[in-house]
Amino acid sequence: MKNIITQFSRLFVGILFIISGLIKLNDPIGFSYKLDEYFSEPVFNMPFFIPFTLAIALFLVILEVVLGVLLLIGYKSKNTIWSLLLLVVLFTFLTFYSAYFNVVKDCGCFGDALHLTPWQSFSKDIILLFFILILFFNKKLIKPLFSNSIQNTITYLSIGLCAFMGYWVINHLPLKDFRPYKVGTNIRTSMEIPENAAKSQVEMVFIYKVNGVDKEFTEKDLMSLPEGATFVDRIDKVIVQGYVPPIHDFKLELEGQDNTQIILSKDKVLLIVAYNLEKSNTEVLKNNVKLYEKALSKGYYVAMLTGSSKEVISSVKMKYRIPFDILFCDATTLKTIERANPSFVLLNYGTIKQKVHYNDIDDLKL
Fold this sequence. Notes:
Blueprint: H1 2-25, H2 28-39, H3 53-73, H4 77-101, H5 118-137, H6 148-171, H7 187-190, E1 201-210, E2 213-218, E3 230-240, E4 253-254, E5 257-258, H8 260-264, E6 269-273, H9 282-286, H10 288-297, E7 301-306, H11 310-319, E8 325-328, H12 331-337, E9 343-348, E10 351-357
Parallel strand pairs: 6-7, 7-8
Antiparallel strand pairs: 1-2, 1-3, 4-5, 6-9, 9-10
Helix pairs in contact: 1-3, 1-5, 2-3, 3-4, 3-6, 4-5
């Protein structure tokens, strides 16, 4: 019985690590954005790690896949299980911290393929920790499946294939797009809320400074505020989350005017998505005029979307002599649409027809 439980744990942990790692390896840039949240000020306040989040993300997801493979084939089981234990303890700490302090809404454990709440993520890690502890206390039952030469070949091959996959998706596109802006999606339809959809329950919370300390009060408490309390702010706290449409933050502004519906109503639209113009590929920006002229000759409306400030927009427009509109859109939304900076998106009446990385601009089907 002990051996059966151990071998089941081996399969369960190994397969789960491989699946979880491959989903994140499919989109390591997206996982790096999640690490940015952990390293930012509201959470651990470690901004010195932020420039290295993509490298850290790649290392972690490759390690996750490779450890899953090593466990399944029984390669150096003692070291493999120790590594798995340390990794899952780290993940358990992060998910508990996120859930308890409500600082990161989604740990990104399964990328955009499966969104878990913070407490669901923590529960998943507790279950995983349980099975890894079974392996830890029964290491002697984990036997290698192949000879040393075959084991080594599988190990190096898995590392090499993972590294190549990471390189490919960073320089092109994810092999599988799990995001709400995938090709074939109609943005307008995905923004709609059904009439019978569940509505959010929101409570107004008032913040007053009492003896130098900010304290929260409900609407009922306002009639009995402490003497000397000074109003600071009012926030809406969601008690029960209602229906949230797949796309809920797509808003395009041109000089302060909302142009979202105007653009979604056009039959031929080319959007150049650059969430940060200061970090955008300069060679691509230089060639945008040629692309604009080609698209214009085929009847396309061309615009650039960015989350950069007005000052940066004006500077870039002047520097590269950009003749088309540059619209403001939330940077987080643009990162969700596409990971490359910039990338190119074709729309037809709000439906996404094609998305390409700037390295694949020749594949754009105007």
